[in-house]
Amino acid sequence: MSCAVFSCILIGLGVSCHLSYLPAFMGTINVSDLQTDMELASDVKNMNDQLLFPVGTRINEKHLRTLKAWGIVEVDVVGVSREDVTQRAIAALDPEILAAAEAHVVPLFRYTDRRHPLISELFRLCVLRKARASFHEKSRKN
């Protein structure tokens, strides 16, 4: 898959990132998963390499608003991994909804190598996003 195609897929999913930052985003968590009082494990910089928050900053509500305003998608947090966040998200979802979401997403990835770390991560994000959307849709109907 070319970088341009991958970039279009990310943009289509609402994920804003630069291809040069892709290796760094693999070990971080999404800003939407941040909670107050979490501690940054690395500096947070904007796309112009300007420091927004230094390592060690404890996240508060103002920080969350600033990160979203700057379009920061992911940050590195002390003691929290992407796997932790994923496990919490999966635990909160109905297994039936999760299975249906995965069944919906699998055909979209039929021509990709899901063993590749980027594709695997993109697949995981798509399944979770579809499952959350299905959960919210189901909640609205009830």
Can you tell me about this structure?
The protein is mostly helical and 142 residues long. Helices cover 49% and strands 6% of the residues. It contains six helices and four strands; from the N terminus they run ααβββαβααα.
Give a brief outline of the structure.
The chain has 142 residues and is mainly alpha-helical. It is built from 6 helices and 4 strands, in the order ααβββαβααα.
Q: Return the string of H and E elements.
A: HHEEEHEHHH
- Quote the CATH topology of the domain at 29-79: Molybdopterin biosynthesis moea protein, domain 2
Lateral strand order in the biggest sheet: 1-4
**Low-confidence stretches at least 5 residues in length (pLDDT < 50)?**
1-12, 15-26
CATH class of the domain at 29-79: Alpha Beta
Secondary-structure class: mainly alpha
Strand portion: 5-15%
Shape: globular
CATH superfamily of the domain at 29-79: Molybdopterin biosynthesis moea protein, domain 2
- CATH architectural category of the domain at 29-79: Alpha-Beta Complex
For the largest beta-sheet, the strand count, sense and barrel status come to:
2 strands, antiparallel
Average pLDDT, rounded to a whole number, is: 80
Radius of gyration: 16 Å
